[in-house]
Design brief:
By secondary structure, this protein is of the alpha/beta class. It is built from 14 helices and 14 strands. The strands form four sheets. It has a five-stranded parallel beta sheet, sandwiched between helices. The longest helix has 19 residues. The structure holds FE3-S4 cluster. FE3-S4 cluster (F3S) binds next to strand 10 and helix 13.
């Protein structure tokens, strides 16, 4: 691939060790994917923040990069393994907390904003249509590409960090218009609503896409979708279908931007949705944990939870996972007090999947299809999906 003189200097180590290592990562990726050149990025989102996933080897890599690495563009962080202020109340082990803080400190040393959120687009890391970015975190990548119309591949932790330290990414994949065309037409013949409903739809479509070996659907039949419904859909279709980009008629900006795919069409009917929903409810489940906020909750979702919990008490462990800036808004609006007075807990900076709670709960109820997948796979818990109202009611039983 062709590097500019500035990029060649980076590769030659003229800008320090971390930049050299970063450019090595990016140019190797570029060679593998046959990129002709690099492109400047204006925003980065880094995943792989939980110490539970990184371990000592990951921390060592970060510490090495932090010796002389400094970010060149706005860079935010995915959820960590714990609430940085409230980890004791959430039952997080002290040894884990110490290591998690070491990880976050290494990121902070590089100038990364330690937001610990998978919804950077809700808290100020918001690219606009057509901008090139380098994001990790599959749900946020899908949201940025599809709903915003920014351009990003599905980065891993090291490649996203490399882009943050250089301001570059190899121009291949979703950075090129020719790779953003819809590949299969999907007709939805049902009314979809709620974060759970859009999560179920994401699973129904994602499962079909996997069987077809396609991953960019052109979806029709959705009359409206809120930001919260879209974030749930993005998380789900990315999880079940490996999708990093979809187009939705009347909802996303590039639906009419490319020729329609010829040939491939499938329909999603009410029966498909019922089947997908039934697959997100385990038999013999006894709920002892309820969590809302996958992807992390917006201020509207928190307002809704507060209105449902006002003057009531929960009887089960109930986490609301969100970004800390959103939690601060909830504090100011008085929602946090209502929620905490009811006995529910905020888990800011983290989520029910990246927190080290494997084996701690037997049955988890959520409004998110993605959380069902990882609740089973990572937490080894039985799972059940429901609406936000049903989740809150379950927590009070
Ligand atoms: Fe975010 Fe955790 Fe779900 S990172 S998308 S809340 S699994």
């Amino acid at each position: 691939m062709k590097l500019t003189p500035e990029e060649q200097d980076m590769l030659d180590g003229k800008n320090g060790k971390a930049v050299r290592k970063s450019m090595e990562i990016l140019s190797t990726l570029g060679e593998i994917f046959e990129a002709e050149r690099m492109v400047d990025v204006c925003s980065v989102q880094i995943a792989g923040v939980s110490y539970a996933n990184l371990g000592e080897a990951g921390l060592e890599f970060l510490s090495e990069m932090a010796e002389d690495g400094k970010v060149k563009v706005l860079t935010t962080l995915n959820p960590a393994g714990m609430d940085r202020e409230n980890w004791r109340a959430l039952g997080i082990d002290e040894g884990f907390a110490k290591n998690q803080i070491r990880v976050i400190d290494a990121f902070a040393k590089m100038g990364i904003i330690t937001t610990c959120s998978c919804t950077p687009y809700l808290i100020g890391n918001v690219p606009h249509f057509g901008q090139h970015i380098a994001w990790a975190e599959s749900s946020a990548v899908c949201y940025a590409n599809s709903v915003i119309g920014a351009r990003t591949n599905r980065e891993g932790g090291p490649s996203a960090l490399a882009s943050a330290l250089t301001g570059k990414t190899p121009k291949y994949g979703y950075h090129l218009n020719e790779n953003r065309h819809g590949q299969v037409l999907v007709k939805v013949n049902a009314h979809i609503k709620g974060t759970d409903g859009f999560g179920v739809l994401g699973k129904a479509i994602g499962d079909r896409l996997i069987k077809l070996g396609k991953n960019i659907p052109l979806i029709t039949g959705i009359s409206s979708a809120s930001v919260e419904e879209l974030k749930s859909f993005c998380a789900s279709i990315a999880t079940y279908g490996g999708t990093a980009l979809f187009h939705m008629e009347g909802i996303t900006p590039e639906f009419y931007g490319y020729p329609k795919p010829s040939g491939e069409v499938f329909e999603i009917n009410q029966e498909d949705l019922e089947k997908a929903r039934s697959e997100l409810v385990d038999s013999g489940l006894e709920v002892d944990f309820v969590s809302i906020g996958c992807p992390q909750a917006s201020i509207s979702e928190i307002e809704k939870i507060a209105s449902l919990l006002k003057g009531k008490k929960v009887k089960k462990e109930f986490w609301i996972t969100t970004a800390r800036p959103i939690k601060r808004m909830a504090d100011e609006a008085g929602y946090s007090k209502i929620i905490e007075d009811a006995g529910a807990k905020f888990a800011a900076d983290t989520c029910c999947v990246v927190a080290p709670i494997k084996g701690r709960f037997k049955g988890m109820m959520v409004d998110s299809a993605k959380a069902c997948y990882y609740g089973r796979a990572s937490n080894k818990s039985k799972v059940k999906i429901g609406t936000i109202v049903e989740c809150v009611e379950e927590a009070m039983k």
